[in-house]
Amino acid sequence: MGAALTRHLEEFPPVPVTLPWEMPGGPPVTVNLLVHGRTNVAIDRHTFNRDYWHPALSAAGIQSSRATGMHALRHFYASVLLDAGESVKALSEYLGHADPGFTLRTYTHLMPTSEDRTRRAVDEVLGSPSNGLATA
Q: Where are the domains of the chain?
């Protein structure tokens, strides 16, 4: 995947775009678009779905459905970050949610169970002679 992204960036360099990023009418922020349209502008989701995502699914022999749509990719992204231990607050910001509570309610079913993490954390602390707790 990294090699494919590198090739894409070599063929289609990022394009700087300045938009009110945080909210409509908010202060403008300049970011580099890694994926952009033929005229070097941001691609809206409908255009991306119609012109890129659905043809890619078709070429791969996958039928377009809710389960294979861009929203499913968003859920995949969220689940990967949660499984890697990313905080709900950070994920909320990455997904553009105004409230981390909404993110938690939406993606809580994707979060790995905490029992194993809890056991590993305690085992790690108790199994290590220099665990930093001496000054606690």
A: 64-128
